[in-house]
Amino acid sequence: MKTIKMYECEISAPIEKEIQSLLIRSFGSLYPEDRIYFKQVPHQRFLAYDGERLVGQVGIDYRIMNLNGKPIKVLGVIDLCVWEECRGKGIATLLLTKVEEYAIEHRLDFLLLFADVESVYRNNGYRSATNVCRWLKIDDHHLTSVGVGEQVVEGLMIKQIGSTDWEDGVLDFLGYLY
Prior knowledge:
Elements: E1 2-7, H1 13-27, E2 44-50, E3 53-67, E4 70-82, H2 91-105, E5 110-114, H3 118-122, E6 127-128, E7 132-139, E8 144-152, E9 156-160, E10 170-176
Parallel strand pairs: 4-5, 7-10
Antiparallel strand pairs: 1-2, 2-3, 3-4, 3-10, 5-9, 6-9, 7-8
Pfam families: Acetyltransf_9 (PF13527)
Organism: Tumebacillus lipolyticus
InterPro entries: Acyl_CoA_acyltransferase, GNAT_dom
């Protein structure tokens, strides 16, 4: 198994087609069929290959967020998915390990994601958080900003990387919700 880290703007048309197929197969009708991102493109992706076949991927998005009035450096984990017939072979853990190594290397404070299946992430050291989140709301179909949302969002999980402690309270994404 090999992994490759790519900037989003470096993804070729054939790789884009592979990613799109994987995302649609993994997320079904919830995922737009005409692009390889949900609301916004991630900055980079880690791609997992078994030989020449793409078997898993995860997007990452780096940004500063505001946690109770304090800036924190966050790497968002976006759309982790593995081909169904390849699940249970450690590919998701491999991709999450690559993301964590990257975050440590770049001295970030936290990894953050929204999980549908929390067990995968709990097994990799993430924990649930119940912060009130504030974010830029985006209309998925028209790709337009429609306001600011503020509520506790189900499935929020974090993993501490740096020395900053996570706090309850308000987490301002200073941008869109992953």
